[in-house]
Specification:
Strand content of chain A: under 5%
Shape of chain A: flat
Structural class of chain A: mainly alpha
Distance between the termini of chain A: 22 Å
Largest interface: A-D, 72 and 63 residues
CATH class of the largest domain in chain A: Mainly Alpha
Mean pLDDT of chain A: 76
Largest sheet of chain A: 2 strands, antiparallel
Low-confidence stretches of chain A: 1-5, 244-248
Oligomer: homotetramer
Chain lengths: 279, 279, 279, 279
């Protein structure tokens, strides 16, 4: 249904369809091709961050860098041409990210501050969010995102409570442990407390006094106990949502208007007549 | 309804409304302003605990300290004036905390024991609980707190069982590992056991004998398996609460105003009269 | 109701009631007194395991040890007298634990091998299970234990699957990492795999090769994902159990035989007559 | 029903029944005996990987190795004889694993490269999957596997989102921490991020800058919060499954033998005839 427009498809509207929509074969191909380039550009940034590799394959990285930059530049220009509200796109989140994905290489070429611009180039990672558009196809993610959205305020309240517990317990640990074990100052103790309460437990900082270890035990058991809270929230939300989704479809019997038939039913379970007449 | 009082609002009752209540604009403003000062005072205590900063910005901290102390002092006096049952407030939890938030600075000024009073000053953190009053506005937290309250006895039983497992396993590990790997004494081994069962795993103490590692594996898998228990409890509690699956409706008995009747009830369970008169 | 017996209560049956039952004031007092002594004896064993303390307070520990041993001996003799099936008690789990709680001190006194018998004395810890009898009073724990009992087979299947994953992944890690990072042999690698999959993560062993770290990432994400399984099982079991517990009682209306009335209902919601006639 | 065959049972079909089926006493005995040998062979590979043991008990390992290899060889030949579609078995997953379980010992005997073939011999571990056939008997695992199967797409979407978070946060940590604390390159930082988000926390890499610790705190709290998501998914799926809330009954259509009809269905949804003839 979507995509049907009354005016004849000009090359511009066609370009728009290819770049911004995903329900035509060309649009889907464009999306996937772009995705591949984005992933490649991310892999490139990752590999370049490995010192050993960046020294050995300096020129290979340099050339790959330019190829990706040029592809992104062309894509940026095409996006600008295809869209009507150009200003809105330029100053949108993706507009800025798209621009920042291309600029660093040019600036580095003009001025030379390669190292400095590396950080900016890492912004390309944000383009990965475009991949998330793909997840729409999976269909499952919608329910998930919905359940999360509805759980968000409750989870935020919970995380806020967790944070307050960490502040209080962190200060307590700083007072008890002092500078033994690494609890040098309150922010550091709070950091340790978050590490412990979330059951991560790096071990770079660890209590050494008996009293400190007792408090630590309480924090750990608390963390172990209250991890139940967000889980309970999401579970309840998700259960409510998915219990509606009985394995029936919304097909309506053309004879008796009975709804909710089993997914692959051929006859209405109410009146016994065929469901799909034109088969 | 609340806030409507028959006697004309004197300046004292008005002050009470501003300080102790939160449903007037002035009251809400007071709460938020106080919250900001409390958060600032906490940030101050945190930053002051960092040695490097406290040496560099000694005077800045000193002045900020006095400003906050004076604000808290004024607040304390206003609270005393506004309330009728003064003695009850002074000896209440918040009354003592409010007093302890101001005293240390004065005592440090009079006597000089700055370091010693630092610990007392950290008590200001307890004022953060006043922030929790704010969470009432969010509304979501009520259901959460209710679910937690009803889960508490069950979770306590569970944590008690966890603690007994830790005592037994801790002793066992001490007997097996001896002083290799750091299992020097039973309390320490119990501490390690809590660290392991809650899946925190600092790594400052770790088994080194094959048998010790086998027992550790069992503890870990147990911890991984039973984390399900508190989650199950809270989930079930929360699901019940949010599904409104209590089989009652909100019908009000026209005779005795009793609410919450079973869904297909025809007579009030409180006064025995018919629920729906016009039937 | 319980405890009413037709024959007159002899001193022996009375003793039995005090020691083995808990529904009379005397029985409950005995249980709690015993519990206190058990906890004290456990604390004693714990503190004695701390080298520093055991050297400093040698005589205090020695005397306390004897007092507790004598109390336990008296208790053991009383238990023997009060019960009819003496042989069954002696060879029961608790009978053996009770005997082993007293013997070591006597043997150490006769022979002198204090250190050797410390391990046996630690068996006293098993008496802590008697504490669990107390949890019966809490009432909440029954539902919990039931939910766990019904989830047990499923959780065992799950843990079995987890163990197989650990064996396979552990072997893989040994082959990849070799002896770098500490993956010296397959059992050790399996131990590491359990530590990682259960999200404990001590850090005493950690992968150092890129490929090893990739496999480790997969193990961690798997562990993070499948922790959902036992939780889901217990949640579902517990939800089912607690959803039956609608706030109704099993009272039957004496007039119309309608069951399931709201807990404090006075009139039947079906026929409108009084529920409790003799009130 | 199963096992009833019209043709008289030849020795070959009997062999097939013993080896490939498990519903006769002989078949079950074969399965369990094989399971024991597989477990023994795995334990052998494990113990042999411990250097100390493999040197001390060289000949014992050598003989045990040969016994197991011969048993596996006989089993492989029997399997080949018993089955009709021999080619299909040889090139099936288990066929290859079964062959690879025997070959290394022969090759090591012929050529001598003992160490090199150790890795191949570890493939025997894959035979452990045959154990999983046993879990079918437990019966509980079916529901479990079903709930997991239906949760898989959602959990994959979730894990994909987790992975993207790790990429972004890992890069951020590399930019912030640089080479202090061990964040040498982006892939390593991503590895650390996975370690942290999944609450494993080895501690071999840990942030040391204040800003890095702040980001780490956010990652940890995120990980702690979103662990709720897969749990919620599996819980909901499992609750739905175990509550039997699927609105179908086990009625079988008398005309077409279609099972699973909606609870109040009167006509078969497959053939359209009346379900209950005698109504």
């Amino acid at each position: 249904m979507k995509g049907k427009k009354s005016h004849p498809p000009t090359w511009k509207s066609k370009l728009h369809e290819v770049i911004y929509e995903a329900d035509t074969p060309a649009g889907r191909f464009f999306d996937i091709a772009l995705l591949v380039v984005i992933v490649l550009s991310i892999v490139l940034v990752m590999l370049e961050s490995i010192n050993m590799l960046s020294l050995k394959y300096y020129w290979e990285f340099y050339i790959a860098e330019w190829i990706i930059t040029i592809i992104f530049t062309i894509e940026y220009i095409l996006r600008l041409i295809a869209i009507n509200k150009k200003r809105k796109y330029i100053f949108s989140f993706y507009g800025i990210v798209d621009l920042l994905s291309t600029l660093p290489t040019y600036i580095a070429f003009a001025i030379g501050g390669h190292n400095l611009l590396f950080a900016v180039r890492a912004l390309r990672l944000l383009r990965v969010f475009r991949i998330l558009k793909i997840t729409r196809y999976i269909g499952e993610s919608n329910k998930l995102v919905n359940a999360l959205k509805h759980s968000r305020p409750k989870i935020l309240v919970f995380l806020f409570a967790v944070f307050i517990i960490c502040i209080i317990m962190g200060t307590l640990m700083h007072l008890i442990e002092g500078e033994r074990g690494g609890f040098d100052n309150i922010p550091l103790s709070i950091y340790w407390c978050i590490v412990t309460l979330t059951t991560v437990g790096f071990g770079d900082i660890a209590p050494v006094t008996p009293l400190g270890r007792m408090i630590a035990s309480i924090i750990m058991i608390t963390g172990y106990g209250i991890i139940a809270v967000p889980t309970g929230i999401v579970s309840a939300e998700y259960t409510r949502r998915s219990q509606d989704s009985v394995p029936t479809n919304t097909q309506v019997c053309p004879h008796c208007n009975e709804t909710k038939h089993i997914d692959n039913a051929e006859f209405c379970h109410n009146c016994g007549k065929k469901l799909n007449i034109d088969d």
